[in-house]
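Take a record.
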Amino acid sequence: MSLIITEIGLEKAMQADEQGVSFKITHVGVGLNGYTPDKKMSALQNEFKRVEIAGGTQVAGNQIHLTALFDGDEEINGRELGFYLKDGTLFAIESHPTNLLTYKSPSSKVIEAFDLILEGVPPNSITVDSTGDLSLYYADTFAVMGTAQINNMRRTLSNLVQLSELKLLH
């Protein structure tokens, strides 16, 4: 991903570093237009949906790993991505004139993972605000799947026992 840090995003990072604090990336937006992004941008050209960062960790000084959940019944043909600070500032942007960056069908839930290397930003000046661990989001789904698998094994075992008993009778 060729991420462009916006001028205002870089300014916010420098201010945070001078004050001895870190700035927080809290949201990711997806838009429908494809183009070559510019560091002077302050918004996506055609933002379709913005969601909270669901999970994030700082991998190294200037590298962060983010995850975001896109759900709902809409189809998304994402050709632009924007990463937003807590105050709503567009910190960084990615787009491509022809390539699709993300896709979500109407009936799906998509977890997007992003590894951002933020060159030119003061090391350790970045934190991530997240809604929690995405693995917890799927706890109910995993419980239902586990129950179905256990019930299937129980039925299979019951059938095997019945077959064994029939063979003993003959």
